[in-house]
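Page 42, continued from yesterday. The earlier attempt failed because a stray header line got pasted into the input along with the sequence. Redoing it now with the clean sequence only.
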Amino acid sequence: MRRGLLSDLFIGVVAKRLTLVETITPKSNQHEFQGTRPLRRLLGDNDRRGIPTRFIWISGEQEALSEEGFMSWSNVRKGKPRAPEYHLYYSGNAVTELMQPSDMLFLALQRDGSILVVVTPSATIQNQLVWLFALEEQPEFAFTFQEIDGAHSAELDFAARYILDELGIEPEEPEADRLDALIEPFGLEFPKTRIFSELARASMPEVSAADDPDLALIAWMDREEQLFKRLERRIVAARIGDGFRAPGGADVDGFLSFSLSVQNRRKARAGQALENHLEAVFDAQRIRYVRGAETENRNKPDFLFPGQAEYRDPLFPDARLTMLGAKSTLKDRWRQVLSEAVRIPEKHLLTLEPGISENQTDEMQAKQLQLVVPRRLHGTYRLTQQAWLMDMDGFIEVVRSRQDA
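This time it went through. Structure tokens are written below.
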């Protein structure tokens, strides 16, 4: 299925690490950036006042804050004989108040002329955005410019959409009619996640987990995400159309409750979908496993190989046991898997999160936790990490060698 391009959304981006003078602190209240050459390449030489701007602050633990504001671009020496000097002013708001020296700032000019500003202290979010915008090296304190054109425009594949979703950006589907036809039988009701997962796989008969488990897992997850969001859009639109009214006026509590249910459904569904598709991969590969088997202290690893009976048999060799945790996103939740199977010292954890920071992967290695990432996402990680990452093919080879021993 055809996907959009990043250049459909953005014209260009600049990035830099913030300095003290650029943040709002008791020592600095300037609300501006010096108009360096990269900024001039992005914004041009004409003055622009009151540019609509969305400011986002996002950490690594699903903490995010978004504010609407504006920026203004002007030559403060306009009409004077001296060389032009540009400044980019920003409106103070809750996001800019959180900015700290050494935070990363990404300033992207969107196709509609508005600006997106993302500020993050998180190394993982920084890695993801550097990859998304094809910035060749980690920007330091000076602005780095990247035009987003055909040569530097990522296809909006699974990894790109994952990152855009973190920013609250939902690109249009180029082939929405085809997706709508697939979900038509569900009307305005969500089916069980397993049914949705089966539909996603059935809609892609050309994809084979027996031939390429890495490709299959990503393709199935991507398709299910597309289908889910199309159906979600229909259901949410219908609920909003009905209005949120109470006898005393607007039903604010009802609206907030509905909004929270939408977010919770997204999170829960993603994890269940990942496990559903992993089951299909293991079945196609003829791997013995149990999903949700119970180990010590009522812990339940997502997948246990070859099974619960073998795990509970003290005569079965520890070296032939394998466990796999599965988390669509990690954040700091990866540590949960460390205690899920005492007999297995080296744990495996699969994630679909791109570009996790080196600090986190270094800690995983120290804790004997092997990260498993589908091969198509390896490019979002740094070269020093890629040599250590395991893909689905590699994990299946490990499990099969232990089961055949």
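Notes: The mean pLDDT is 90.
Reminder to self: strip header lines before submitting.
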